[in-house]
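Q: My labmate handed me this sequence with no annotations at all. I'd like to see what the chain might look like in three dimensions before we decide whether it's worth expressing. Could you predict it?
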Amino acid sequence: MRSTRRSSAHRESSALLAGRLIVVTGASAGIGEAIARRLAADGARLVLIARRRDRLEELAATIGGGALAIPVDLADPDAAAAACAQVLEQAGVPDAIINNAGAGAFQSLEESTVQDVHDQMDLPYFAAVHTTMGFLRPMLARGSGAIFQINSPVSVVPWPGAVGYAAARFALRGFTEALREDLHGSGLAVGSLTPTRVHSDYFTANPGSVERVPKVEALVGTMRPEEVAEALVRALVERPGKDTHVPWRWGLMQPLARAFPSALTALYRRTGHQRA
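A: Here is what I predict for the chain of 276 residues:
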């Protein structure tokens, strides 16, 4: 039965996404790569953006469909603007932007340098802002499209030992909510997908970070990149102007975290990073 439902959902998303131009940032690995592969399977036309040229070009060649690979550091506003202009010239106005680029180790403030803190804000927050700004005017002129952020549970409930990372994710949530209000009535939808911890090379690239994820995470579960990609497609098709939280256990807990922040914060504090 589950396989039948999945096949039906896949046919529906394919019908709605086929031929659509979708920009995926942070596409060279992990969640971004899984999203790109899933959207390609639905027949979407893809623009893949990340910093690693070799990984991007390999992915574009693998998924085919004329995927456009653009290696760029989205933290650089001039480089980001040039990349967006290239997309508009070579591919057209996107139907959707998936702002997935992110980075940053989990660190207490005294463990961080000033550059660390700036780098953590660059990705994901400024990367999402720069990319969105690069496409917003033509999307507004057309009067349609979706802007989607991939976020983290720490944007809802902060936890100890990850100050710069949490602040950047809070900023991304604020950007999503403020942009949604700013674009109300424009024809553009603004949404987000917030999964729990994802098993990807993100934690390999940031050693020591996984140990700082609060143990209460066991209550909400973990995910694979392919599961996040599936959830992203459902959210993009079914609720492009909403915030979606997955898996279902985190989806149930998240409203409680917003309504009763002190209770959840205490739980995360008790099961999270402890100072020596």
